[in-house]
Amino acid sequence: MLYEFDLLVVLIDRMTRLKKQGEHMSKYKGVIVGSALFILLSFVFGFHYVKGEMIKEKVANFKMPAISVTTEKVNKDTWDKSLKVIGNIHSNQSIDVTSQMSGQVKEILFNSGQRVNKGDVLVKLDDALLKSNYKSQQSKVELARVELMRNKLLLRNNSVSKNSVDKLQAQFNAEGAKLEYIATQIDYMKVKAPFSGSVGIRNIDVGDFINSSTAIVELEDKSKQYVDFSIPELYLHDVKVGQDLQFYSEATNDEVFHGTISAIEPSSESNTHNIELRAMANQAVPLEAGMYVDATLITSESDTIVAVPSVAISYTLYGNTVFVLDTSTKKASEHSSNDASPFYEYKVAQRTVEVGPKQGGYVGVVSGLKAGDVVVTSNQHQLKNGGWVLVNNQHPLITDKSTKQSN
């Protein structure tokens, strides 16, 4: 029993020691884990702090690259006040030749594209029935004439009444009128040119049956040519007979022709409120009737304006603006290809301008610019006020103006 009791005491003592050692080890492990966690968090937060500071430094030192643009120096120019209009060519006379009678085409006496003179017979219709009626009517006229002459002789002897002779005279006149009517119908079976000119492509063939609504061929008289166009009624008092009209067409490689205002419509069109005008060409124009032309109507004497390429102007609801180079900020660009022809960078300033008339690819600026300013003509949507641009005019803007100036 003593031995067992001693064994039990030893076991209890050993268990007590093990328990104390376990508690001591748990505290040690906790300290280690806590220390490791502290070091990890310090590293994470330190990394993010250093990263943020580096980003701030990079952002503070970052410079937006200069935008590559083209430019043009603006100058004062002298422009005539004018209206841009669209017109169309008209011949002196132009018709679709038709017949006054219905009938079958018997003979065609013209070729497509031929020049014809007034009165030339273009088409003959079958008139055999009319000629037969003409001969029959001639017999009736002759009979009426004989009856009239016989009764006039009898009237001298008072063998017939004056009233009978008058009736025979009226009958003779009526029969003669019928004969003239048939003769006119026979003449109308020959379709003639109403005026001199050139015919187009014929629309009929021998044997066709035509009537008064059948278009035989188009006939054009180009001895005179006109340009018909319209302007808003607002500009009526700016136009008058005798003013010069310049017009051109891509069909003639934009060759400029001149005309003179010859007529102004006395009333305004009720739907469009436009006034119709006609100008007579001063020379023969190699254009066909109905072709469209671009025209410029000079309305007053010249004005001096600052001419700016239309592509340089940004149109917005808040005003029209342009970007202008600040020449005082000029510096050589690091992107220069060589020292002989370096590129230069500038700051740009955005200006509000008031625009006036337009001419070709240019706009007249009334205020906001002065002669000698250099405006940006490309990539304006990428720019902002005070931003830097790289001027590259190796491929300058192509406009209607013959003189190009670049910085």
TrEMBL record:
Instruction: Indicate whether Ribonucleoprotein appears among the record's keywords.
Output: no
Q: Which SUPFAM superfamilies would you find in this protein's record?
A: HlyD-like secretion proteins
Which cellular component appears as one GO term in the record? efflux pump complex
Q: Name one GO molecular function term.
A: efflux transmembrane transporter activity
Any coiled-coil ranges, and where? none
Q: What are the GO BP annotations of this UniProt entry?
A: xenobiotic detoxification by transmembrane export across the plasma membrane
Where does the source fall among the domains of life? Bacteria
Q: Which Gene3D superfamilies match?
A: 2.40.30.170, 2.40.420.20, 2.40.50.100, 6.10.140.1990
Keywords, A to Z, come to: Coiled coil, Membrane, Transmembrane, Transmembrane helix
Q: In what residue span(s) does the Multidrug resistance protein MdtA-like barrel-sandwich hybrid domain sit?
A: 95-214
The transmembrane segments are 31-50
Q: To which protein family does this belong?
A: Belongs to the membrane fusion protein (MFP) (TC 8.A.1) family.
Q: What name has this protein been given in UniProt?
A: Efflux transporter, RND family, MFP subunit
